[in-house]
Write a structure and sequence with these properties.
about 500 residues; alpha+beta; D-Amino Acid Oxidase, Chain A, domain 2; Rieske Iron-sulfur Protein; 3 domains; 9-stranded mixed beta sheet; binds flavin-adenine dinucleotide; Glycine/D-amino acid oxidase-like deaminating enzyme; 2 iron, 2 sulfur cluster binding; Rieske_2Fe-2S_sf; metal ion binding
């Protein structure tokens, strides 16, 4: 039986309203039948969680879906809802990290994600203004034009349709532009609300207003606890955008805030297209009609969360908008957060160092409509024990070279340093600061120990220094760049994997 909590406003994770917020009716909170064990509990009711929930429930599984607030409370309620055949990680970047086959798979995943949205719209007859549009990507400088050529070549390699054009519908003076057919846009919350209805109609149980803050495990059953509920399931999916607590993803995904304005125009010159410049950070423009009123959506100016000034970002975005468009009124201004993955592609799968059967999907960059949708499908397949062709490139435990992502590394070197240093006293902090690139040291304070290594790029890596063989503490071997156990000769690589000797299990990676 479902309890309905009186709350008719769709809320999101910020004080500023986005145009997607709807009067949504009461929140739904099912009762948990005593002794019930669901096939899967999905935590997080954004586009990722709801896609997984609907697909699993359609397969006859008994699914519980919990959200700390309401459906669409997270970034899906603050997105700009473009559906593209390309992504923030360009296909040449994907090729440099994952090879040509990897780039083609990435393009397939983006395409499949867009296809899932289209299929859901058709299957459930969803009225969410899902419309096909043409996309335009333009360059204003020679450097940007060169990047645009690379992007075009990448499109041709992975099979994404695009052509050069001199008719990009933008007031900005550009020197080169690409036309990309078959892009789309929609209203993300109307879409989510329809998925919620489909999920409930198929017999799914929804728990809004339910913050899951603890997981317990017994006999392969996971029990998720909130202040008022205990929900047991065979599998758990964290569709929370980034899994909570400290996990490897805390160091593999960097949080960014991005800004959007929705404005009316004096001259009614709203473009009927999706338009992107090539600046760093880039701007994007599209039109959406809400309650009969056309709005120009214009976004960009992102920065790392907690760095830079949000009001300045809005001011810069407004100045940019007024420079190119005849603004009548700023109807909405809002910001939201996304996560940039270390090597450019999302992480989907088992959460490392957690009990088996606990999955997540994260690191969608600004492309979570497609990547959240395809991840929802992959997560549903994982819960069903079905393999996906994307398991390998999106593997949640992959370790990849990240040459093309130096900005990320620079920032995350700082995050990693603070993570380690903040756990130790002043003396240890000083010795960490003095740790030269290419050297390692076991640091200790208040009975806590970590085997810390600073790589040649300055990034800190930390392992549990307790040898998995007999429990001795490893030492750093500067000549071979390894962690060596003084007791029985077990030797471990910088990533913790076993190199030599009696241990059969690697050192646990802390970061
Ligand atoms: C400004 C902006 C514009 C964007 N534009 C686009 C775009 O045009 N196209 C595109 O493809 N992508 C875009 N993105 C990215 C995209 O919006 C996101 O990647 C996507 O919405 C993420 O969806 P999600 O379901 O994974 O997470 P979310 O929508 O964030 O949902 C996570 C949910 O988990 C819940 N939750 C968290 N912790 C718990 C817990 N412990 N217990 C219970 N519930 C919990 C939250 O309440 C939330 O509802 C944009 C992002 C931003 C910031």
């Amino acid at each position: 039986m479902a309890q309905h909590i009186e709350n008719t406003t769709h809320t999101r994770d910020g004080a500023l309203n986005s145009p997607w917020q709807l009067p949504t009716g009461a929140l739904v909170n099912h009762q948990t039948p005593t002794g019930k064990i669901y096939d899967c509990l999905i935590i997080g009711a954004g586009i990722t969680g709801l896609t997984a929930a609907v697909l699993l429930q359609q397969q006859g599984k008994q699914v519980a879906l919990a959200d700390a607030h309401n459906v669409g409370f997270g970034t899906t309620g603050g997105t700009s809802a473009h559906i593209n055949t390309f992504a923030d990680t360009t296909y040449p970047e994907a090729e440099s990290a994952f090879g040509e086959d990897g780039a083609i798979l990435f393009a397939d995943a983006i395409n499949d994600g867009a296809g899932i949205i289209k299929q859901m719209v058709t299957d459930f007859n969803i009225d969410c203004q899902h419309e096909t549009k043409t996309g335009y990507l333009y360059a204003e400088t020679e450097d940007e034009a060169k990047q645009l050529d690379d992007i075009y070549n990448g499109f041709m390699k992975v099979g994404v349709a695009a052509s050069y054009t001199e008719n990009a519908p933008t007031p900005v003076a550009y020197i080169k532009a690409l036309e990309i057919p078959n892009q789309a846009q929609f209203h993300p919350i109307e879409y989510l609300m329809a998925l919620k209805d489909a999920f409930l109609k198929a017999g799914g149980h929804l728990f809004e207003n339910t913050l899951i803050d603890k997981l317990e495990h017994e006999d392969n059953i996971h029990t998720a606890l909130s202040a008022e509920k205990s929900i047991s399931a065979k599998k758990i999916v964290y569709a929370t955008h980034l899994p909570p607590g400290i996990t490897v993803f805390s160091f593999k995904c960097a949080p960014y805030r991005s800004y959007v304005l929705a404005v009316t125009l004096q001259d009614d010159d709203y473009p009927d297209a999706l338009i992107y410049d090539s600046q760093e950070p880039y701007h994007y423009v599209r039109t959406h009609q809400i309650n009969g009123q056309k709005l120009l959506l214009i976004g960009g100016n992102e920065h790392k969360t907690g760095h830079d000034d949000p009001e300045q970002a809005f001011a810069d975005l407004e100045a940019y908008t007024r420079q190119y468009y005849n603004v009548a009124e700023i109807k909405y201004r809002w910001s939201s957060q996304y996560y940039i993955p270390a090597d450019g592609l999302p992480y989907v799968g088992q959460i490392p160092f957690m009990a088996d059967g606990i999955y997540t999907a994260t690191g969608f960059n600004g492309n979570g409509m497609m990547l959240g949708s395809i991840s929802g499908k992959i997560l549903a397949e994982m819960a069903l024990g079905v393999e996906s062709k994307y398991d390998k490139i999106f593997s949640s435990s992959r370790i990849k070279p990240i040459d093309g992502f130096t900005e990320f590394m620079k920032e995350n070197a700082d995050v990693a340093y603070r993570f380690v240093a903040d756990r130790f006293g002043v003396e240890e902090k000083q010795s960490l600061q003095q740790l030269q690139p290419g050297t390692g040291q076991v640091v200790e304070s208040n009975d806590k120990k970590m085997a810390v290594y600073r790589d040649k790029d300055g990034t800190i890596h930390a392992l549990d220094p307790v040898c998995t063989h007999a429990g001795c503490i490893v030492n750093f071997n500067a000549a071979e760049c390894t962690w060596d156990c003084p007791c029985h000769g077990g030797r471990f690589a910088i990533d913790g994997s076993v190199l030599t000797g009696p241990p059969t299990k690697g050192l646990e990676q802390i970061l």
